[in-house]
């Protein structure tokens, strides 16, 4: 059974459709990337998995459970299975690295402090930062802070990991380190993981599959090898970072002359 499944999911904010008829399946151990232009609905897709919003039609299943049908209490339980790393998922600045990672364990479990200590050190070890346990967030580089946030996200051994732009703002070395960690943690924990990213090269190096979203629809998908070889115009536009293509540079607008209030003007 897939850990994440979208069955013909559609969603709109008010009258504006954001996702249309999305179907996909992600198995345990799979790491996938969702790519698409700004506003194509990537973050919305993650919010449907976390239950922050509910599908207007179709179903979102996490570990076989229909997220849209859950009560608030049941959602709270479900979220225990999810780990999330967001671009701006900042660390608590007044807590040490250790206490940041311990936070979800203290909040969500009744484990004794001695066990929490072991778990925190294990998670920090997994991201290579056991040595920074007693540092404060202000003392960390951006890349280290992201790795601590990653350790915090996996504190409760999630079955599903959601990453929203995990590479943003990182230097090339930290970026490669975080990418490698995302892959390693996915494999070690056997999670189903989704990375929402603009970072084509980094994500192609680590993921099993890529889904391309445009205008709220899945327009292309494939393995990194298929994506690299694809002649699909959307895929090409992303891989080659072209400003214009199927995702247009210009947002649709009235004729220039009409916008300027000219009648019969020349465009
Ligand atoms: N709370 C909201 N209320 C109304 N419209 C929203 C809301 N959140 C997002 N939108 C709109 O929904 C569309 C999809 O947004 P979403 O954040 O999912 O896109 P995205 O692909 O993640 O974009 P980006 O790459 O820029 O983060 C956008 O047009 C956005 O303006």
Automatic annotation (TrEMBL):
Keyword hit for DNA-binding: no
Pfam families from the UniProt entry: ABC_tran (PF00005)
InterPro entries: AAA+_ATPase, ABC_transporter-like_ATP-bd, ABC_transporter-like_CS, P-loop_NTPase
Membrane spanning stretches: none
Gene3D superfamilies the record matches: P-loop containing nucleotide triphosphate hydrolases
GO molecular function, one term: ATP hydrolysis activity
Taxonomic superkingdom: Bacteria
Domain ABC transporter: 4-240
Keyword terms, alphabetized: ATP-binding, Cell membrane, Membrane, Nucleotide-binding, Transport
Keyword Thylakoid in annotation: no
Protein's UniProt name: ABC transporter ATP-binding protein
Originating organism: Chitinibacter fontanus
């Amino acid at each position: 059974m897939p850990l994440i499944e979208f069955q013909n999911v559609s969603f709109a904010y008010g009258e504006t459709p954001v996702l249309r008829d999305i179907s996909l399946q992600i198995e345990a151990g799979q790491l996938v990337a969702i790519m698409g232009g700004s506003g194509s609905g990537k973050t919305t897709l993650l919010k449907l998995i976390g239950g922050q919003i509910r599908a207007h039609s179709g179903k979102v299943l996490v570990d076989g459970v229909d997220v849209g049908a859950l009560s608030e209490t049941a959602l709270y339980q479900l979220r225990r299975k999810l780990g999330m790393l967001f671009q701006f998922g900042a660390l608590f600045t007044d807590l040490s690295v250790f206490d940041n990672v311990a936070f979800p364990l203290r909040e969500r479990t009744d484990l004794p402090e001695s066990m929490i200590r072991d778990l925190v050190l294990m998670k920090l070890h997994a991201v290579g930062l056991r040595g920074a346990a007693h540092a404060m967030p202000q003392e960390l580089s951006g890349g280290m802070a992201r790795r601590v946030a990653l350790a915090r996200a996996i504190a409760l051994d999630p079955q599903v990991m959601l990453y929203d732009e995990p590479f943003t703002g990182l230097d090339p070395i930290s970026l490669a380190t975080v990418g490698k960690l995302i892959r390693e943690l996915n494999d070690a924990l056997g999670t189903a993981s989704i990375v929402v990213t603009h970072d084509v090269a980094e994500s192609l190096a680590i993921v099993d599959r890529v889904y391309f979203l445009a205008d709220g629809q899945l327009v292309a998908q494939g393995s990194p090898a298929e994506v690299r070889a694809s002649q699909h115009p959307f895929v090409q536009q992303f891989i080659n970072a072209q400003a214009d293509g199927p995702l247009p540079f210009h947002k649709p607008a009235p004729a220039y002359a009409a916008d300027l209030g000219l009648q019969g003007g020349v465009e």
